[in-house]
Specification:
CATH class of the largest domain: Mainly Alpha
CATH superfamily of the largest domain: Winged helix-like DNA-binding domain superfamily/Winged helix DNA-binding domain
Helix content: 40-55%
Largest sheet: 4 strands, antiparallel
Strand order of the largest sheet: 7-8-6-9
Number of domains: 3
Distance between the termini: 30 Å
Low-confidence stretches: 1-15
Oligomer: single chain
Strand content: 5-15%
Order of helices and strands: EEHEHHEEHEHEEHEHHHH
Structural class: alpha+beta
Length: 272
């Protein structure tokens, strides 16, 4: 997890998540899904529901504006924030990934991307790897990314175009039986025991969860915690997972609680 530092002090919510990370979740859940705009006071109140102080929220918003995810204009004495096109696209595909994660898949096929001439700087390479990881893509060795969600092909090409526009990427899909040794190589890169422990902690935490700050805070924490699995779990083929994989139970808990809590959250117009 990336921690946002303020005056050498890590600014975290009561759940341990950073103000910046929670802001991104809040934008996707309460802004992009409703209006594409809000007032800064709306976001400050949403983040306050999970223990983020106003000063930390304002700094996170300021960074989001600087990074090109939000624009800010004055409406009277209030700051109105508008999602940029970049942010809308990011949050839309992110939301699709979060809510489809651990869902039904149509057959087992590898998504394989070869990039023999990836001549980009270290920071861009790291951003590329992080963006691809969100879609279940990992690199078993230099020059290759592989994943088990073959329907993400178009999105993976978009990510390469954004982070490595001059690189030539060759993308293909293949049946597991057609690529000898790849399944074993990828499985060795995934700590199944650690993943199982993380899912169990998620289930134990939320199955009887009651948050004193109300349903906005509950939904924000639920979605935020679940979206981390989209980074941690590349969704191995069922043939490589233990029988009765606990990730499916985690999905059931997430879907049940989200459908129960989300309708009880007020619209943005009710916040500030």
């Amino acid at each position: 997890m990336v921690l946002v530092e303020e005056e050498s002090v890590k600014v975290l919510s009561a759940s341990g998540a950073s103000a910046g990370a929670l802001l991104l979740t809040a934008l996707g859940e309460f802004v992009a899904s409703q209006h594409d705009y809000c007032f800064a006071s709306d976001l400050i109140e949403i983040l306050a529901s999970v223990g983020i102080e106003e000063k930390s929220s304002r700094q996170a918003i300021f960074r989001a504006v600087g990074d090109g995810y939000l624009t800010s204009t004055k409406v009277g004495r209030r700051s109105q924030l508008m999602l940029t096109e970049r942010a809308v696209n990011l949050l839309e595909v992110g939301r699709e990934r979060i809510f489809s994660f651990q869902g039904e898949r149509s057959g087992e096929k590898w998504l394989i991307v070869a990039h023999p001439n990836l001549s980009i700087d270290r920071q861009s390479r790291r951003r590329l790897a992080t963006a691809l990881r969100f879609y279940g893509m990992i690199s078993p060795y230099p020059g290759l990314f592989v994943g088990t969600n073959h329907h993400f092909g178009d999105r993976v090409l978009e990510i390469f175009a954004e982070h490595a526009p001059d690189a030539s990427a060759i993308i293909t899909k293949a049946n597991p039986s057609d690529v000898s040794g790849l399944a074993e190589m990828v499985a060795e890169m995934v700590d199944i025991d650690l993943l199982e422990k993380s899912y169990r902690q998620f289930i134990d935490r939320f199955v009887d969860f009651e948050f004193e700050q109300g349903y906005v805070g509950q939904v924000l924490l639920l979605v935020h915690e679940w979206r981390h699995f989209a980074m941690e779990d590349i969704e191995l083929f069922d043939s490589l997972l233990p029988r009765g994989w606990i990730g499916r139970k985690g999905k059931e808990v997430f879907d049940h609680l989200y459908s129960k809590w989300r309708p009880l959250c007020p619209d943005l117009s009710s916040f500030a």
